[in-house]
C-alpha cells in the first residue's frame, strides 16, 4: 500500500508532468497543490478500518464463484431480514460521514431519537460538497468513529442512512445502456486520476451490461501502489459487500478497460466504470 508521503510525492510528480513545458510555473503549482491537499478533500487520510461501515450489504441471491446458486433467501427462517440493495447508499454514507461528521468518544451517547436525527442530517448532505471544517460538522458523542458506531448501532444506522430502491432512479444510471466505448473508459480513468489527485473520493458504478455479472458501487479512495511500467494502475476501494478489507480496482491501458477483483458474487475481470455522486444528477 502506498503511504501518505509516497502518495504526496506521486501527486506532485503527476502535476508537474501534466504542466509539461512550463517548468518554473509547473514546480510552483505543484508545490502549492501539494500543500493544499491536507486542507481540501483529504481522502489520503482515509482509514478503511476506521472510516467505513462495520456491517455488509448482502446480495439478493446466493452466489458461488460469481454464479447464482439460489434465487431464494439464502438465510434460514427466523433470522433477521437481510440488508440488501444498499451498495450505493453505503458508498454515499461513507463519504458523507467522512466529510460532514465527527466523533467524541469521551462524551455520553445520544438517545435513539436524537442519534437517528443526526444520522439523517449527515446523509442528506450532497456528497460532492466540500469537506466541512471541524466546527461545522455534526457531532456523534460516545463513539470513536464510523466503524465503531455502525457496529454498536447497526440497525439504527441501517434504518436511517437511506432507502435502497431510490438508487435505481438515479439519472446517471442510463449511461450503462449506451456509453460502452473504450474512449469513454479512458476519459473515466483520467477523471479518476484527477479526483484522487485533488484529494477527493471517486464513487464508481461498476457494470458490464448487458451481461449483468456485476451491477455494483464502490468507493475508490487511493492508489494501491505506484503506476506499473506498462501503465497499469491499481486502486484501493471500499466495497460495501466486504467490510473486512479493501478491494482492488485495476486500470489496464493495453485493454483500455477496468477490471474488478473476484469474489463469491463476481467472477472477476472486466467492469465498466461510471463516476457517480461527483456532482448533481450524476
Brief characterization of the structure:
With 282 residues, the chain is of the alpha+beta class. The N terminus is likely disordered.
Mean pLDDT: 84
SSE order: HHHEEHEHEHHHHEEEEEEE
Helix content range: 25-40%
Shape: globular
Number of helices: 9
Descriptive tags:
3 domains, two-stranded antiparallel sheet, disordered N terminus, alpha+beta, 9 helices
Task: Describe it.
There is one protein chain. The chain is α+β, with helices and mostly antiparallel strands. The protein has 3 domains: 4-36, no CATH class; 45-167, no CATH class; 168-276, no CATH class. Helices cover 33% and strands 19% of the residues. The chain has 9 helices and 11 strands. It has a 7-stranded antiparallel beta sheet, with helices on both faces. Strand 5 and strand 6 (215-223) form a beta hairpin. The chain is globular and about 55 Å long.
Amino acid at each position: 500500500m502506498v503511504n501518505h508521503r509516497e502518495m504526496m510525492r506521486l501527486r506532485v510528480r503527476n502535476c508537474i508532468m501534466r504542466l509539461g513545458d512550463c517548468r518554473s510555473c509547473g514546480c510552483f503549482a505543484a508545490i502549492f497543490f501539494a500543500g493544499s491537499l491536507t486542507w481540501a478533500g483529504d481522502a489520503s487520510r482515509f482509514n478503511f478500518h476506521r472510516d467505513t461501515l462495520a456491517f455488509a450489504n448482502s446480495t439478493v441471491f446466493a452466489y458461488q464463484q460469481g454464479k447464482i446458486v439460489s434465487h431464494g433467501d439464502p438465510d434460514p427462517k427466523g433470522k433477521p431480514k437481510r440488508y440488501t440493495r444498499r451498495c450505493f447508499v453505503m458508498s454515499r454514507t461513507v463519504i458523507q460521514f467522512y466529510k460532514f461528521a465527527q466523533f467524541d468518544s469521551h462524551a455520553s451517547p445520544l438517545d435513539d431519537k436524537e442519534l437517528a436525527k443526526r444520522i439523517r442530517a449527515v446523509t442528506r448532505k450532497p456528497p460532492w460538497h466540500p469537506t466541512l471544517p471541524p466546527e461545522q460538522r455534526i457531532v456523534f458523542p460516545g463513539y470513536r468513529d464510523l466503524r465503531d458506531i455502525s457496529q454498536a448501532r447497526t440497525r439504527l444506522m441501517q434504518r436511517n442512512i437511506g432507502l435502497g430502491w431510490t438508487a435505481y432512479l438515479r439519472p446517471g444510471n442510463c449511461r450503462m445502456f449506451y456509453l460502452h466505448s473504450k474512449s469513454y473508459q479512458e476519459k473515466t480513468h483520467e477523471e479518476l486520476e484527477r479526483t484522487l489527485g485533488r484529494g477527493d473520493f471517486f464513487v464508481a458504478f461498476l457494470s458490464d451490461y448487458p451481461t449483468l455479472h456485476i451491477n455494483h458501487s464502490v468507493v475508490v479512495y487511493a492508489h494501491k501502489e505506484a503506476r506499473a511500467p506498462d501503465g497499469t494502475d491499481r486502486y484501493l476501494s471500499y466495497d460495501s459487500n466486504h467490510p473486512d478489507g479493501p478491494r482492488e480496482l485495476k486500470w489496464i491501458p493495453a485493454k483500455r478497460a477496468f477490471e474488478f477483483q473476484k469474489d463469491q458474487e463476481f467472477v472477476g475481470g472486466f467492469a465498466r466504470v461510471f463516476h457517480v455522486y461527483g456532482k448533481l444528477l450524476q
